[in-house]
Amino acid sequence: MAARVGAPAPAPTARPGITLPNQTLYINNLNDKISKQVLRSELYVLCSQFGGVLDVVALKTGKMRGQAFVVFQQLTAASVALQKLQGFEFYGKPMRTAFCRTKSDVIAKEDGTFVPKQKRKTESHVPAYKQPNKKQMVESQAEAQPEGDQDMQEETNQPINKILFLERLPDEINVEMLQTLFKQFPGLAEVRMVPGKTGIAFVEFESDAQAATARDTLQGFKLTPTNTLRITYAKKN
DNA sequence: AGCACA
């Protein structure tokens, strides 16, 4: 019963005001005098410099005006765009960028988690972006129980560690991109790549729990159509 | 301020 002076224990995940990385960028404070068509195409070209854009959704109806959703093909692109476009002067107003709270339909349709209209609001309290994607689950389970390969098992059964081991990275990726990607999670300490070794990297957090959050969110993420991120805990020395 | 997609 010791007095707790204004220090509410924060839940490790999903704190209010903090949105986890999402492939879709949420933009607001947009000039609502711009037509939907112009807004869509202008945002499309503006955002394409950071990577492939799958869709731009802009509604002018009611509470949705002045906002837009830009769906990126890759999370890294959304991440970079979020930072580079923060406060960007667009038709006379600085845009505000954030990660979208939910998964876009285009993405959900792609990974098989799409739920048609009605059931949405009623069903789950867990936002779509936090729900595991079926393909990814199948994949990681297949990897967690490899048929007969003991080396694999040793690798995946590492105890929790504040250092993450990343595999299947695209060749084009670099430390900056990984920092951008992981900086969104609290507690990032360092990103290391290994000279001469492509496809892998180490990402260190300040605590095991912080590393675990990042791992859970980004596990199985499609960095490119052919690079599905794989994250395990690094071996302890 | 406001987190949609039919």
Which secondary structure elements does this structure contain, and how are they paired or packed?
Blueprint: E1 24-28, H1 36-48, E2 53-57, E3 68-72, H2 75-84, E4 89-90, E5 93-94, E6 96-99, H3 105-111, H4 119-122, H5 134-144, H6 150-156, E7 163-167, H7 175-182, E8 188-193, E9 201-205, H8 208-218, E10 222-224, E11 227-228, E12 230-233
Helix pairs in contact: 2-7
The structure holds one DNA strand of 6 nucleotides.
Would you identify the regions where 5 or more consecutive residues have pLDDT less than 50? 1-13, 121-155
Number of strand elements:
12
Provide the residue-averaged pLDDT: 80
CATH topology of one domain: Alpha-Beta Plaits
Q: What is the terminal-to-terminal distance? A: 40 Å
- What about the largest sheet? 4 strands, antiparallel
Radius of gyration: 19 Å
Helix-strand sequence = EHEEHEEEHHHHEHEEHEEE
CATH architecture of one domain: 2-Layer Sandwich
Structural category? alpha+beta
Supply the CATH superfamily name of one domain. RRM (RNA recognition motif) domain
Q: Using the coordinates above, name the CATH class of one domain.
A: Alpha Beta
Helical segment count: 8
Strand order of the largest sheet: 2-3-1-6
Share of residues in strands: 15-25%
Helix content: 25-40%
Shape: elongated
Walk me through this protein's architecture.
This protein has helices spanning 36-48, 75-84, 105-111, 119-122, 134-144, 150-156, 175-182, 208-218; strands at residues 24-28, 53-57, 68-72, 89-90, 93-94, 96-99, 163-167, 188-193, 201-205, 222-224, 227-228, 230-233. Among the domains are: 24-111, RRM (RNA recognition motif) domain (Alpha-Beta Plaits, 2-Layer Sandwich), CATH 3.30.70; 163-233, Alpha-Beta Plaits (2-Layer Sandwich). The longest helix is centred in the N-terminal third of the chain and has 13 residues, at 36-48. It is elongated. With 237 residues, the chain is an alpha+beta fold. It has a 4-stranded antiparallel beta sheet, covered by helices on one side. Strands 8-9-7-12 form a 4-stranded antiparallel beta sheet, with helices on one face. Strands 4-5 form a two-stranded antiparallel ribbon. Helix 2 (75-84) packs across helix 7 (175-182). The termini are far apart. Mean pLDDT is 80; it is low at 1-13 and 121-155. The structure holds one DNA strand of 6 nucleotides.
